[in-house]
Amino acid sequence: MNGPGILWMLQVAAGLSMAGPMYIVGIELLRTGSPAVGVGFLALGTVALFFPSYLVRRIGGPRRWIRSLLGPSSEEEESTGQPERQG
C-alpha cells in the first residue's frame, strides 16, 4: 500500500494553514449576521485550501525541477536505459 507522499502532505498543511483562519472568520460572520461576507470568506478559504496543490501541478514538482536542471539528454537516457549515441 502506497500512502500519500511528503510533498502532498506539505501541500495540505500549507493549504490548511491559509484556509483555516478564513473558515473560522467566515463561520463567525455567518453566525453573527453577515451572510454575504461570511460566504465570501468561506469561498476564499476554499480557494486558499486548493491553491498550493494547483501551484505545484502548474509549475511541476521536484522531479520535474531536477530533470530540467540535468538537461534533456538525461530524460532520453532514462526512457531508453542507454545513453544517446552521437554520430
- What would the average pLDDT be, to the nearest integer? 80
Biggest sheet architecture: none
Shape annotation: elongated
Rg on CA atoms, Å: 21 Å
> How much β-strand is present in the residues?
under 5%
Number of helices: 4
Distance between the termini: 46 Å
What is the structural class?
A: mainly alpha
Unreliable segments (pLDDT under 50, ≥5 consecutive)? none
Helix and strand sequence? HHHH
Number of strands: 0
Give the proportion of residues in helices: over 70%
Per-chain topology:
Elements: H1 6-32, H2 35-59, H3 62-70, H4 72-80
Helix pairs in contact: 1-2
Overview of this protein structure:
This protein has 87 residues and is mainly alpha-helical. The protein has a domain of 58 residues. Helices cover 80% and strands 0% of the residues. The longest helix is centred in the first third of the chain and has 27 residues.
Summary?
The chain is mostly helical and 87 residues long. The chain contains 4 helices and no strands.
Keywords for this entry:
87 residues, mainly alpha, 4 helices, 80% helix
